[in-house]
């Protein structure tokens, strides 16, 4: 077995030594050549956007001669923008020379059912307007209320159970479907608009109620709405 001296190569044929890396440039040049090193208060290489005692200590290096870095305050704004208010007023005009503003007034309609057994259903017709926006409803007992735009839609949907979904991808013409089971039996709508879809159009709206309580009861409902089209 060769000894250690014979085993260690004294040279590497085909290889050359790597050159030494050049020294890295100084990050902050020395003092006295117009750079940040001349100011011991400097903390950031970026100039400030406003003037103050702290920024002057860092960047105002005029030193009584030609300035090297000087902080100049922002110009004073002398022009102030103005806004305007636009008011839109809806008016209705006729063929005559006069015009008048249109005022919408909320109205109420009352519904009374016969005495219904638990789970019993009643269907009636209410007179509202051709189109309207629902505002609120108040009932006296637990119940379900459905409003439709036509009698045909009301009849087709009569077999649907409470809380069951409507048939998918079918024109159901259902305006609203509310189930009230906790006192007080009040519901308030937001942006719920209904219309009569008969041809010709009239002011009838078709209501279905279901007694969801456990005993027989007469359902009394008051609906507040905003007529949109008489």
Question: What keyword list fits this structure?
Answer:
230 residues; mainly beta; Jelly Rolls; 2 domains; four-stranded antiparallel beta sheet; 3 helices; 33% strand; elongated
Verbal overview:
The longest helix is centred in the first third of the chain and has 7 residues, at 53-59. A 4-stranded antiparallel sheet has the order 3-10-5-8, with no helix packed on it. The protein has a 4-stranded antiparallel sheet with strand order 4-9-6-7. The chain folds into 2 domains: 28-74, no CATH class; 107-229, Jelly Rolls, CATH 2.60.120. It has 3 helices and 10 strands, in the order H-H-E-E-E-E-E-E-H-E-E-E-E. It has 230 residues and is mainly β. The mean pLDDT is 80.
Fold topology:
Blueprint: H1 4-7, H2 53-59, E1 91-93, E2 99-101, E3 107-116, E4 121-127, E5 131-139, E6 143-148, H3 151-156, E7 174-180, E8 186-195, E9 204-211, E10 217-229
Antiparallel strand pairs: 1-2, 3-10, 4-9, 5-8, 5-10, 6-7, 6-9
Q: In a nutshell, what does this entry contain?
A:
With 230 residues, this protein is mostly beta strands. It is built from 3 helices and 10 strands; from the N terminus they run H-H-E-E-E-E-E-E-H-E-E-E-E.
């Amino acid at each position: 077995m060769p000894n250690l001296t014979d085993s260690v190569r004294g040279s590497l044929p085909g290889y050359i030594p790597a050159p030494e890396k050049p020294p890295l440039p100084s990050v902050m040049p020395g003092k006295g050549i117009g750079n940040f090193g001349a100011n011991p208060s400097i903390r950031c290489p970026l100039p400030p956007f406003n003037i103050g005692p702290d920024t002057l200590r860092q960047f105002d290096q005029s030193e009584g001669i030609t300035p090297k870095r000087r902080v100049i305050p922002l110009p004073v704004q002398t022009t102030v923008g103005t806004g305007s208010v636009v008011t839109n007023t809806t008016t209705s005009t006729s063929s005559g020379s006069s015009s008048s503003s249109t005022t919408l007034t909320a109205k109420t309609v009352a519904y009374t059912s016969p005495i219904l057994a638990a789970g019993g259903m009643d269907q009636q017709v209410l007179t509202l307007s051709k189109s309207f926006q629902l505002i609120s409803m108040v009932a006296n007992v637990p119940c379900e209320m459905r409003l439709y735009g036509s009698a045909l839609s009301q009849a087709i949907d009569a077999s649907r159970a409470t809380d069951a979904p409507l048939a998918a991808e079918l024109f159901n013409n259902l305006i609203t479907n509310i189930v009230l089971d906790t006192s007080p039996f009040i519901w308030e709508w937001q942006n719920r608009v209904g219309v009569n879809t008969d041809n010709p159009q009239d002011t009838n709206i078709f209501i279905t109620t279901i007694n969801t309580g456990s005993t027989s009861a007469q359902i009394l409902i008051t609906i507040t709405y905003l007529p949109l089209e008489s």
